[in-house]
Amino acid sequence: MKIIGYKLGKLRVPLVTPFKTALRNVDHVEDIVIMIETDTGHVGYGAAPATAVITGDTHGSIIDAIRNYIMPMVTGMEVSQLNQINEIIGEALINNFSAKAAVEIAVYDLFAQAHGVPLYKMLGGGQPRIASDITISVDYIDKMVADSIRAADAGYETLKIKVGKDLGVDIKRVKAIYAAVKDRCLLRLDANQGWTARETVAALHELESSGIELELIEQPVKGADLKGMKYITERVRTPVMADESTFGPREVIELIQMGAADIINIKLMKTGGLSDAIKIADIAKIYDVKCMIGCMLESSISVTAAAHLAVAKSSVITKVDLDGPALCQFNPVTGGATFRGPDIELNETPGLGIEAIENLIPLD
Ligand SMILES: C[C@H](N)C(=O)N[C@H](CCC(=O)O)C(=O)O
Ligand SMILES: [Mg+2]
């Protein structure tokens, strides 16, 4: 099975409700989709959103990296040379992890199709069902409480509460949501770098002393502030998770050795795809550190790939934040994983199992 060409498209899916974090407000998922073509007629699907405030990647940079750097180097290669292809993708240009992720996901899709098995079996197998949390966007307190109750009614057992705007209001937000759903849901907080280290310690001490049990606090301070992450990790009872502080395997090793977090959030858009995400899961396993599989605001194409990884690495990836598709008004993808409320189920079709994508705008 040889790579002979590719097509690009843009996918735009409206959200059920605007997605608001300390970093940005958006009302659509917008992915660049790649379909890699082979001499056997098989098509491999990959996709990447532009999360410039986290990865630095824009739609323009993703398209340029794929068209002018990555695909010219892998076109003509045999899909069976998976590891070699991954190294070429990684070295085609520095950074540009979203573009690399889109291409790698499509190549893994083809590799598993070539072997006639779903991707998770190629990665080691597992139980093809996982449950995700859902994000509660940062907003007025009443709106966040209402959104949390609606999520609990829809069957979500874990809520990811966005904070990081104003410390005083954030504490009130968490207390109000906890009072409303504490018997039904576990709360994880994500400040998206919005607090300082001292503010985080003060906020968590206030919440902890009020009897509020949180599952974790995600990325309270700036990604580069590893000393701040360590300062917090050493002083609070609530587990601290690194998101924007770690992209690739080397950063994960540094962060773990520094004691700058308890948990790692793995996202394919930060690792540049599956190969480095697998390395991070294996590193975390060695250090006995647990991971979350996360996503950006992205569609079910790349989230399906992340779900396959989570299933295959379930002994270390024990937390799931793959709610991108659930936040959308509809799923334009036929095939791939099935998303029903919190439940994500993989199908047994070879590869990612993606058959077709509606509303795809060709980019030619
Ligand atoms: C969508 C997911 N639940 C999430 O919250 N991801 C964010 C970043 C998403 C974005 O801005 O596109 C995160 O974990 O920080
Ligand atoms: Mg995060």
Automatic annotation (TrEMBL):
Q: Which cofactor does it need?
A: Mg(2+)
The terms under GO molecular function for this entry are: metal ion binding; racemase and epimerase activity, acting on amino acids and derivatives
EC number, UniProt record: 5.1.1.-
Cofactor, how bound (note): Binds 1 Mg(2+) ion per subunit.
Q: Which residue ranges does the record assign to the Mandelate racemase/muconate lactonizing enzyme C-terminal domain?
A: 142-239
Positions that bind substrate: 24, 135, 160, 295, 297, 321, 323
Database matches in Gene3D superfamilies: Enolase-like C-terminal domain, Enolase-like, N-terminal domain
One GO biological process this protein is involved in is: peptide metabolic process
Which family is this sequence assigned to?
A: Belongs to the mandelate racemase/muconate lactonizing enzyme family.
Q: Which Pfam families does the record associate with it? A: MR_MLE_C, MR_MLE_N
Q: Record-annotated residues binding Mg(2+)?
A: 190, 218, 243
- What keywords are assigned to this protein? Isomerase, Magnesium, Metal-binding
- Recorded superkingdom: Bacteria
Entry-linked CDD domains: L-Ala-DL-Glu_epimerase
**Which EC class is this protein assigned?**
isomerase
Q: Which residues form the active site?
A: 162 (proton acceptor), 267 (proton acceptor)
Q: Does the keyword Ubl conjugation apply?
A: no
The record's InterPro entries line, in alphabetical order, gives: Dipeptide_epimerase (IPR034603), Enolase-like_C_sf (IPR036849), Enolase-like_N (IPR029017), Enolase_C-like (IPR029065), Mandelate_racemase_C (IPR013342), Mandelate_racemase_N_dom (IPR013341)
Write down what this protein is called.
Answer: Dipeptide epimerase
